[in-house]
Design brief:
heterodimer, A: mainly beta, B: three-stranded antiparallel beta sheet
């Protein structure tokens, strides 16, 4: 299980503005260990899925060039108080993490 | 490569694990596009066509990135029927950084932070109504985000 995702969602009218922080090393596989000089194995998030009340509304596919501890911001239309926003990811080692938040 | 019983079993188990826990699918990640080593190749692999420059695609990214490991980028568009938004960094070893599949329920604005190995042209490509539109900007990097 990956580290928990931090989500902050704010409702503006019927649009939910969501910011999410996904703690992850995002190793590109091109970085060398400073001590041993060996390449550090690639370990990065490949898929991020955003669900609004259980319906997929946004899917992100990432390569190795997304920064460490990725941050994403997006907005969802047609949102209301009590709606559930879920963010989940899968990395190249099949590790996963998911977190959900309820709009206030 | 020599295949003995142990390594055979191990690879079979790995295959079984992938089948048992499939990735959630919207489309499917275009792995080949992420492995491509030139922007043109990555875009062709991911989107299958050449985008046309458009002033309806907007990209907010610093002119000079002090730290190539964390370059904030925001892509937005005035276009309707947005299907996907992708970010490509020409001079990165694998130029395709991220691609977002949008739905009618998402507002066409995406922010993400990317790594840049060196100064490069950064492209934002929007697929809308079946067509591809792009905008690009040169970003100077003072400290690279790849290597140690």
């Amino acid at each position: 299980m990956g580290k928990p995702i931090k989500i902050r969602a704010k409702l503006k009218g019927d649009i939910a503005e969501v910011k999410a922080l996904l703690p992850h090393d995002m190793e590109s596989g091109m970085r060398r260990d400073p001590d041993s000089g060996e390449l550090v194995a690639a370990h990065y998030i490949t898929d991020v899925t955003i669900e609004h009340n259980g319906e997929q509304v946004l899917v992100a596919y990432w390569g190795t060039a997304v920064s460490k501890n990725p941050y994403i911001a997006f907005s969802i239309k047609g949102a209301a108080v009590g709606d559930v926003i879920k963010v989940s990811w899968t990395d190249n080692k099949s590790d996963t993490s998911e977190t959900e938040t309820t709009l206030k | 490569m020599k295949i003995d019983r142990r390594s055979m079993l191990r690879s079979l188990l790995a295959v079984a694990a992938t089948l048992a826990f499939p990735k959630i699918l919207f489309a499917a990640r275009a792995d080949k596009a992420f492995e491509a080593t030139t922007s043109d190749e990555a875009i062709a692999e991911l989107l299958g066509a050449v985008p046309t420059a458009s002033d309806k695609v907007h990209m907010k990214i610093p002119d000079i990135a002090e730290n190539g490991a964390v370059v904030p980028v925001t892509v937005s568009t005035d276009l309707e029927d947005v299907e996907s938004i992708s970010v490509v960094v020409d001079n990165n070893p694998t130029p395709l950084a991220a691609s977002f599949d949008m739905s009618p329920k998402t507002v066409a604005v995406i922010s993400v932070r990317i790594k840049m190995g060196q100064s490069s042209i950064v492209r934002a490509i929007v697929k809308a109504g079946g067509n591809l539109y792009s905008t690009s900007k040169e970003v100077k990097v003072t400290i690279g985000g790849c290597g140690g």
